[in-house]
Design a protein that fits this description.
Distance between the termini: 24 Å
Shape: globular
Structural class: alpha+beta
CATH class of the largest domain: Mainly Beta
Low-confidence stretches: 1-36, 175-189
Helix content: 10-25%
Length: 192
């Protein structure tokens, strides 16, 4: 912020030193830039399909709809998950989820992050209960709990379940999942 004020002062003159801090304060307090500081409630149903199993694509690929609420306000949207897991378990057994990425749009708010682990239970009836831990890295901080049942009877396999924000999770406007910060130039490096 100080660098911005100094830069503007050099371009516009000393008058910028008195006007610019007020403009920056207004921009920081604009509704679109306010960040949540209290725990958030997020809960809803997820439905979708498995587009590709890990054995074929090297990662299991899921997409679908989210029908739920964010802090009590309707926040329907879409979700996707890319996940790696141990070999699928035999009926009654479990396998671990090893890694992955996820993204979700709730209303107009993009969320995303990595999968920090979880488990897969073979229910013995052609379905799997999957419970990954979604580490929130874009759009807030904390974790989301996802519990889904994958039914392999239809094709493509169907997904139903629910997602909730874990205690203490904060969801706030932020960069879109997968968005990268602009590259920084090193001191003395020329611009193109």
């Amino acid at each position: 912020m100080i660098v911005l004020i100094a830069y503007c002062a050099r371009i516009v003159g000393r008058a910028a030193l008195t006007v610019l801090p007020a403009i920056v304060a207004v921009l920081l307090l604009a509704p679109g830039s306010v960040r949540a500081t209290e725990a958030t409630t997020l809960a809803g149903a997820v439905t979708g399909v498995e587009l590709c199993p890990q054995i074929v694509c090297g990662v299991a690929v899921f997409i679908g709809r989210f029908d739920g609420a964010l802090d009590g306000a309707p926040g329907d949207g879409r979700w996707w998950v890319l996940v790696n897991h141990e070999e699928l378990p035999l009926p009654g057994d479990r396998a671990g989820i090893t890694r992955g990425q996820w993204g979700m749009i709730v209303g107009e708010l993009p969320l995303g992050g990595v999968i920090a682990g979880g488990s897969i239970l073979n229910n013995g009836d052609g379905t799997l209960t999957v419970a990954p831990v979604l580490d929130l890295r874009a759009g807030g901080e904390g974790t989301l709990a996802l519990f889904i049942v994958i039914d392999h009877a239809p094709f493509p396999p169907s997904v139903t379940g629910n997602v909730t924000a874990s205690a203490g999770t904060v969801i706030a406007p932020g960069p879109a999942p997968g968005a990268r910060a602009p590259a920084r130039r090193r001191s003395g490096e020329a611009t193109r």
